[in-house]
What we know:
Blueprint: E1 3-9, E2 12-18, E3 23-28, H1 47-60, H2 77-86, E4 95-96, H3 97-103, H4 110-118, E5 131-132, H5 145-155
Parallel strand pairs: 4-5
Antiparallel strand pairs: 1-2, 2-3
Helix pairs in contact: 3-4
InterPro entries: MethylDNA_cys_MeTrfase_AS, MethylDNA_cys_MeTrfase_DNA-bd, MethylDNA_cys_MeTrfase_DNAb, MethylG_MeTrfase_N, MGMT, MGMT_N_sf, WH-like_DNA-bd_sf
Active site: 128 (nucleophile)
GO molecular function, one term: methyltransferase activity
Amino acid sequence: MIFTSFVSSPEGLIRVDANNSGITDVQFVAPHKDEDVACGTEENSNAITKEACKQLNAYFEKRLREFDLPLAPDGTRFQHSVWKALQSVPYGETASYLDIANAIGNPKAVRAVGMANGRNPIAIIVPCHRIIGSNKTLTGYAGGLPRKQYLLNLEGAQGVLWS
């Protein structure tokens, strides 16, 4: 069974899905914070989705730097290795796709790391937004580059395009 909660953020409404084991999906579902949407709505929540919303609110209020939630994303073994490596990139810092490929012991898998990063189903909590190009520029983000820039600015990351 999948449980769902919603949380309002400065960048739009976020849907949080979980099963009984952990978070399965965190995605932006409304285009902008000014959208007239019922925020904080809980369709069929559980303790995990409620805690995730609480931690996401604290993150956006700069009171939380590291999430402490059980995660249960669906993916391949390789994707899971990439997503685990993403979680080692500290708040306010960035890494390149090559850095992640090296971290998982597969330096030639830069493109595959990029694909796995792009398929990360747990936005923000698994910080794919902290991954940038080797030339220190912003690269793709499922939530859109403006949101990626916002998240990096929120965390105080310094970079070429988002300063």
